[in-house]
Design brief:
Helix content: 25-40%
CATH class: Alpha Beta
Shape: globular
Oligomer: single chain
Strand order of the largest sheet: 2-1-5-4-3-6-7-8
């Protein structure tokens, strides 16, 4: 009896995830033509302004001089839950070297529910509320998770779609950290914080 109940509960969770995914993909397909498609390495990452879970406004340009891991995710995305603890570890490991991880939540849920989920996952980096506009600017993000690795000059050095291995994610982080900002030395780019704010498995 208990086994049947567990199977039924698992099916309900799977169906809910499929419905959420379908709703998200339908939203994606109705958008305008993507601005960032194909091999995106070497392209300047589109600037954006999004809201944090506590209502602050954040721009990507606030982090110029930092290496940014821009991760599109959702609370209903199972692979996202796998890689989030890795991001927590990477933020701890490379934060002093200039890494900033930005999690862009593509949920329909409200901020308090997303904040509760992020707290339960031990997230130690900013979580931003995603919009259709930012998804469009980053190539109509169709699959979650999708991550962009942006170097200190604001250029994309890598992209990961789906659940990558931890070592591959860390390699991309190191690539993003490796490029200093023109006109600045490592001492200037590594320790400084952002200028105005608080604190399918394929890769291209």
């Amino acid at each position: 009896m208990k086994r049947n109940a567990l199977v039924f509960a698992s099916l309900l969770i799977a169906i809910a995830a499929m419905l959420a995914t379908g709703k998200y993909l339908d939203r994606v397909h109705r958008r305008a033509t993507a601005k960032l498609v194909g091999d995106v390495r070497g392209i300047a990452a589109p600037n954006f302004e999004l809201t944090t879970l506590d209502g602050q406004r954040v721009r990507l340009s606030d982090y110029r001089g930092k290496a940014v891991l821009l991760n599109f995710w959702a609370t209903w995305c199972s692979p996202c839950k796998v890689e989030m603890p890795w991001f927590v570890e990477l933020q701890k490991k490379y934060g002093n070297d200039g890494l900033v991880i930005l999690g862009v939540a593509m949920d329909d849920s409200d901020a308090p529910k997303i904040a509760q989920f992020a707290s339960e996952m031990g997230v130690n980096y900013p979580v931003l509320l995603g919009t259709d506009k930012v998804s469009e600017e980053y190539g109509n993000v169709e699959f979650l998770p999708t991550s962009f690795y942006i170097n200190r000059e604001g250029k994309i050095v890598g992209k990961g779609t789906g659940l990558l291995g931890r070592s591959e994610i860390e390699d991309n982080v190191r690539k993003a950290l490796a490029s200093p900002v023109a006109g600045m030395n490592n001492a200037q780019t590594s320790p400084a914080g952002p200028r105005r704010v608080k604190a399918q498995t394929t890769a291209q």
